[in-house]
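TICKET #2291
ISSUE: user wants both folds in one file
ATTACHMENT 1:
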Amino acid sequence: MKCQVNKPYPKIRVEKKSLENAKILTHLYASNESELNAIMQYSYQTMVLDSEEITSILKAIAVVEMHHLEILGKLIKALGCRPIYADCNYHDVLYWNGDYVYYDMDLKTILDINIESEQQAIYNYQMVLSVIDDIYLKENIARILEDEYLHLEIFGKLKENL
């Protein structure tokens, strides 16, 4: 199953260095609603589910999310910050941790969690698009967003087929 939109990703670049934009991206990068969290969530699910079909889809989506993580990390670096596994969009740095993963083993619950997570990711990416003013960041965020819509569609179809 195709888990990535058939469209190239834009070049990694920014108009100018911006600590503020870098901080905004860290929420997408390594928070409880981030690409890092999605990777860990889907990886965990591949270990506890018995369906080869679903685990292969989860692995493929996790690989796409890893690419998103890499893009965001490189953008954060291009903006002038270190891409650490933390949400720096607050007064305190909130480091990513394993408590963010839902450790459920029921397939229906897992699909519900994944649908909700993808909906939240879409919302978060849309919010970032509305507040940043860097055209190159917007191009990258918009391209990642296309994949997130596809992931939501995939999880929705998997749930329909239960």
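ATTACHMENT 2:
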Amino acid sequence: MLLLGVVKYDPRVLREVHALRKAGYRVDIISSEYFPRNPIDFLIFNLKFIKEGFKKRASVYHAHDLCTLFAGVFLKKLLSATLIYDAHEIFPELTKGFKKLFWYMFERILIKYSDKVITVNKLSLIHI
């Protein structure tokens, strides 16, 4: 699992981890409390996630938010893995102006590489 934030403060992620482990799956979590503020930070943030994700050599990567989706897509392609994208919120709606357009387009492009998508509701899913 690729997560922006602290897992102990995210009950949704904790429930998913618990359910998967109970079902017999091994679950590793790669997380960061640091939110990337600019394009350079975003690149460094994702390179760290890719590096750690590559070490795991997982068959499934679960990107829990838009900031981790880039790393998830990269790992999917690099390792021929399955990618689940879990959009906890409609991220582009949390920003304004050019940033909103950037995140909307970014998500629209990368979501196509996801094998499964979990959204806050079915209306928020970008139809591919």
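RESOLUTION: both attachments delivered.
EXTRA DETAIL ON ATTACHMENT 2: Residues 47 and 71 are 7 Å apart (CA to CA).
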